[in-house]
């Protein structure tokens, strides 16, 4: 159950012993009303930091349980970094029993923090997990997976190189493999 008076993101960061509190802009994002939120920021602006702090703020204030968190990003490196930050901070929150009791005297937050299991992944990895888990409902084979550009290139090359039939072009001759790839790349 959500707190009627949520703790501010700056105060929460102090309780968690963070060296630097969120900036005014970050605090506005972290403490925004729960729901869809678009944040546009350039490289190095602190998006990963802000997203991790938002998750902890939502959990600490009773808006979400750790197992209800889904964090998606584009790269494995960003997913690993965000996941680590979220787990570390939720761990710090769980260890601060006085703060947890202050935030939720009912004990529900403490119970929710016993197993810290947010899901943080790349979009591709999460899509693959959905296919493995629910693919048969679509129907898609559960062991199906996305193929990389390199795999796609290798498969297409194999098909072209091993094709034994004849090809016709406007010029009346078969194109070379290099010509074929230039045509496919356009």
Count of helical stretches: 9
In total, the number of strands is 2
Rounded to an integer in angstroms, the radius of gyration calculated over CA atoms is: 24 Å
Which range does the strand content fall in? under 5%
Molecular shape: elongated
Largest sheet: 2 strands, parallel
Quaternary form? single chain
Cross-sheet strand order for the largest sheet: 1-2
SSE order, as H and E? HHHEHHHEHHH
Assign the structural class, choosing from mainly alpha, mainly beta, alpha/beta, alpha+beta, or little secondary structure.
mainly alpha
Query: Between the first and last Cα atoms, what is the distance in angstroms?
Result: 55 Å
Low-confidence residue ranges: none
Helix content: 40-55%
Summed over residues and divided by their number, the pLDDT gives a mean of 87
State the gist of this model:
This protein is mainly alpha-helical and 186 residues long.
Describe what you observe in this structure.
Helix content is 51%, strand content 4%. It has 9 helices and 2 strands; from the N terminus they run H-H-H-E-H-H-H-E-H-H-H. The protein is elongated, with a radius of gyration of 24 Å. The mean pLDDT is 87.
